[in-house]
Amino acid sequence: MVILGLGSNVGDKLANLRFALHLIKKIPAFSVAHVSPVYLSDALLPDNAPVTWDTPYLNLALLCETTLTPYALLHHVKEIEKKIGRTPEKVWGPRIIDIDILAWDALIQHDEKLHIPHEHLDERPFALWPLADVAPFWMDPLNNKTAAEMVAKWGSRFNGKAPFHTQQIAQRIDTPQLMGIINATPDSFSDGGKYTNDRLAADYAHQLVLAGAEIIDIGAEATNPKATAISPEEEWRRLEPVLTAIMTQSTKMFIKPKISIDTRHPDVAKKALVLGADWINDVSGLENAAMRDVVANNACDIVVMHHLGIPVNKALTLPLNQNPIDLVLRWGEARLAEITQQGIAQERLIFDVGIGFGKTAEQSLALLRHIDQFHQLGVRLLVGHSRKRFLNLFTDKPFAERDIETTVLSLQLAQQQIHYLRVHNIEMHARAFKIAGS
Hints:
The chain is an alpha/beta fold and 438 residues long. It has twelve helices and 18 strands.
């Protein structure tokens, strides 16, 4: 049993940790058995450290198995740190990634290169709490106490009262990233009219991040069957104050979320990108040449969604006598090929099968059950199934009361390695993923 500790306090910290996990899984004769929750903590600073060093860390632990020697593993770890971008730095300085061998069964090895168990573990909840999450019965050979015994002195993992204000956060790196939804519309099917006020929308965005969201998707035009199409001018009138307020609020959050704009209008997308949006979530599947030009001239990521018309026309669906998986897959292959041929890098693209857009309830459910087939498209996958009409197959509850059904499906989607889930109830999803990963 080997336990690695990972930390980052530079740049996109969660992305750095995910990339490290991805590379660690490629180490030969090495496997990752368990990933801990993520912890937020103050930086450990030397006296007279520059103010710029005082940037919070995100930390976690990995429970691993290997036939490598400690020195062989150390070599791989250092190579991974270099690949991610770590350069020689001053002691306790900011780090894009830090990977430590925290423990190795009952091994005690302290020399110029290795300190196993890691030094000062019992003084550092940002290292010992994650270790205890993945290996509570690991016994420290230096004091003959289990990890669970040692962390008991710090009390709750969640209140920030432990040393370095260490506390567990809701985001994880081994589950789909959660996209929170803010509808700046009066007519969205689930929460229309709630977040047209910019202050309320910004506060809600902050709540979503605290609950576990990493992406905030903001839309100002409803696309449900009862919605009325609006002009780009009206969409921007609704969107601009909300987007500006959320962008300002995002700089105060413990992680800066990606901001996604749910729009099919090129002019709206262009203005949003100028304000700093990170993603364009185009429900029209980038069918508009002007929209392709907008995103081609920007570095944003792009969600490309399958549909048969926006707003949705309930009378227009995929043919009932054909396989919906094959139909959407062929559409995706053709559309993504068109987009990449125009010079937009495949790495920037995210595909959404468009649950409920031009599909019967049964077709939507079939797509969810076979979503893993869409990995062959070679791009990241996003699913937006939250509270939707196809759930009429399982419940007659109002749309706003369909989070249990949504979350159960999300757990199944996580098993199929979906990258992003666009959902209404972020807290329920984060809590479910935490238990599923325990």
